[in-house]
């Protein structure tokens, strides 16, 4: 039997596939490990609604009972938002978590893999993983980057946070031939702020322009993903000196505590929320919603081209 035995579509997504509607993938690590309850489930539901209102169908992806779930029910969303024993699943963890029938929340890398298996080309998230600061010593480079190098899914995000080394992250993407597009911007966004000080490869003026570029890339069999950086709305961005200050503090704490590996990103996200007294969470929610608008428009535009 083929991989299809591991895939379980929700009724909504199955219907969308049969009716050939545009579908947008969403990850679950952001729910289980990226935001606290209940803001995580509220945001997950709101994002799904935004996508539906734009004429696309949301498919939140997670691992449950030995299956890759493509589309979660409300009860399942609540489960992933509340449960504390959900595994963080990246590429290396997919097989073991499926085989052991544990619950797993998929990272950008694992969500891309599952989206591709399900025939979904556009994926909306908050921020991608990248090359961590100090990677020259720790070699901590997110598997998200390697996945972007080979899996044919476009990832709409608000850039990468400066808990990462944004310059090295962009160098890595360049080496692997991953296009970095700025939505209505020449500058790669830094998640909590609109600007990072680093440029993008190409500015996408409209969702239609970006969809056209995706279509050409994949028609040419240029394997791999595309990063679409969509800056946080101006009125929701954080003060740069404040965010720089708390990121430095959180990074130092992580180092002092010896946090490493897959714990690093969730630890830093949680500390930033506490150190900013919730301000990072407010910005995080706003940028994910904004990405859902843009991602759904790109998915609809790409679907129109492919029709
Ligand atoms: N960045 C965020 N929020 C997140 C993540 C990253 O702002 O929730 C999650 C994503 O799921 C991403 C993962 O794929 O962290 C990267 O983890 P790591 O650095 O361990 O590869
Ligand atoms: Mn890592």
Automatic annotation (TrEMBL):
Binds 1 Mn(2+) ion per subunit. Keywords: Glycosidase, Hydrolase, Lyase, Manganese, Metal-binding. InterPro entries: Indigdn_synthA-like, PsuG. Its cofactor is Mn(2+). GO terms for biological process: nucleobase catabolic process. GO terms for molecular function: hydrolase activity, acting on glycosyl bonds; metal ion binding; pseudouridylate synthase activity. The keyword Phosphoprotein does not apply. The active site is at 27 (proton donor), 161 (nucleophile). It catalyses: D-ribose 5-phosphate + uracil = psi-UMP + H2O. Substrate binds at residues 88, 108, 142-144. One of its GO terms (cellular component) is cytoplasm. Mn(2+) binds at residue 140. The keyword Transcription does not apply. Its EC number is 4.2.1.70. Pfam families: Indigoidine_A (PF04227). It is an enzyme of class 4 (lyase). Catalyzes the reversible cleavage of pseudouridine 5'-phosphate (PsiMP) to ribose 5-phosphate and uracil. Functions biologically in the cleavage direction, as part of a pseudouridine degradation pathway. Homotrimer. Belongs to the pseudouridine-5'-phosphate glycosidase family. This is Pseudouridine-5'-phosphate glycosidase.
